[in-house]
Design brief:
CATH superfamily of the largest domain: Periplasmic binding protein-like II
Shape: globular
Structural class: alpha/beta
CATH class of the largest domain: Alpha Beta
Strand content: 15-25%
CATH topology of the largest domain: D-Maltodextrin-Binding Protein, domain 2
Order of helices and strands: HEHEHEHHEEHHEHEHEEEHHHEHEHHH
Oligomer: single chain
Length: 339
Amino acid sequence: MSIAHRRSWRLRGLLAATVLGLATFAQAADFSILNVSYDVSRELYKDINPQFAAHWKAKTGDTVTVSQSHGGSSKQALAVSAGLEADVVTMNQSPDIDILVERGGLVAADWRKRLPHDATPYTTTSVFLVRKGNPKGIKDWSDLTRPGLQVIVPNPKTSGNGRYTYLAAWGYALLERSGSEAAARDFVARLFANVPVLDGGGRGATTTFTQRDVGDVLVTFENEAILIAQELGEDKFDVVYPSVSIDASAPVAVVQKVVAKRGTLKLAEGYLEFLFSAQGQEIIAKHGFRPRDPAVLKRHARQFPSIRTFSVDDTLGGWSAVQKTHFADGGVFDQIVAR
């Protein structure tokens, strides 16, 4: 082949590569999605979002911005049902996703089957955060009913964190005390009689306890207790694990009507799938949530002490019954607070 021919082929090759590059560039785009989540997951998703954006960029060439909205889990669900355009919801209890199924079909009815572990990428449990040295000697749920003790808990009507605290105490009374519903009600009533203020969400309750110095004990999720120790110093607080607590698996779902409108279905699905990836699970463990991946959990075993837990479905009759009996307007919780 002559020099002229070789130059001609090289030029054609360069032009083809340029055209291919321009086509790829033209196909790449900028997208944004909104993750509406609960109070104490802020730091988790601040870390997840840029990692996912880099992952998605490498996979598709698209630039992604993930925005966050946080508050009490139930309040957030109501905001989405009222028109807040979330592409995904990442809540701390399944009723806050089920309500989006019931109200206008915002979420698919089979959302639990669309991702592993019933669409829960991690779990946590309710523990006690006490002042350093545990001056009040708080060891178990029964201690929280002692006269004169102040217990800080978010409002179970607006916060999944508070709801899990209420149900953990109720389950403890059933499993470890008398076993009767009447005795469980009396036990939980005595605990909430020691609650001086009901904040709207878990992060507000944390502020009340750690910054306003109100209360002798904060009942909160394990990950929140770990975060407080990391941020404020282990010389100020101790974490106490009760004899038994509740499994608080955190569910996630795509908001189908929003992604259909915005054209973000694949992106939203990819975002939630990333939470179950090895990379996503490592970030989850780093933030004090118990990952689903057995290998990741094993690597972080020292961070997560063994604790006996029960679930709402196995011990308390399921979320539907719990919602109707305890948290509907005029239900057991309202009656306890009114008394």
